[in-house]
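// run 5 | inverse folding | seed 20
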């Protein structure tokens, strides 16, 4: 009697098992197709908005300031808008901030803030669906404000200019409207005589929205 009851109870379970398995397989297939769908659609022009945050470092030689305490790194960031043309080209307009650097040498303390507006054009190299390397080149309209404090006497300096810059990075598109970016940019600020007066390196991680 117990064996018959067990067989009767087990029968619906055995019948339901294939249905449950089929439903799970169907759900997994639909999820996979959904995730791949935006990879497979034709590449099209997109409007982009992005923000990146990371480490900014001004290249300062200790030998130029022997014995001084130099703090030449700070948090840097940039934000931009632009246009992505198909899969290969992108164009951006934005603003970058390099944070603050400082030098203390005895009774003298100097600190400087730098940043600027930029435009650039990027060339993308697709390596896999949603993953690409890129290089870019552009122009930055930079400015730097410096404050020198010696024994309480403060002197202010302002410099500005327009110079080229370049950058490289990689881009991982995680959804149809979202991408993760890792970037390295190099900037050189020059005076009117084309002498480099400041140079910065900026390493960032960021998010990019596509519309």
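// decoded
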């Amino acid at each position: 009697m117990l064996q018959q009851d067990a067989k009767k109870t087990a029968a619906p379970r055995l019948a339901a098992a294939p249905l449950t398995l089929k439903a799970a397989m169907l759900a997994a297939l639909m999820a996979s197709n959904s995730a791949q769908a935006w990879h497979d659609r034709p590449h099209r022009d997109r409007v982009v908005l992005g923000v990146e945050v990371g480490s900014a470092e001004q290249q300062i030689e200790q030998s130029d300031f022997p014995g001084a305490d130099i703090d030449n790194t700070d948090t840097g960031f940039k934000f931009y808008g632009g246009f992505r043309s198909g899969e290969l080209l992108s164009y951006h307009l934005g603003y970058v901030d390099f944070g603050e650097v400082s030098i203390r040498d005895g009774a003298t303390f100097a600190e400087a803030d730098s940043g600027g507006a930029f435009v650039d054009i990027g060339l993308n190299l697709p390596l896999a669906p949603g993953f690409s390397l890129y290089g870019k080149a552009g122009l930055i309209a930079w400015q730097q404000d410096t404050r020198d404090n010696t024994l309480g006497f403060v002197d202010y300096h302002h410099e500005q200019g327009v110079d080229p810059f370049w950058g490289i990075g990689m881009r991982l598109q995680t959804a149809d409207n979202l991408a993760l970016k890792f970037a390295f940019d190099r900037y050189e600020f020059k005076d009117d005589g084309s002498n480099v007066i400041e140079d910065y390196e900026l390493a960032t991680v960021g998010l990019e929205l596509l519309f």
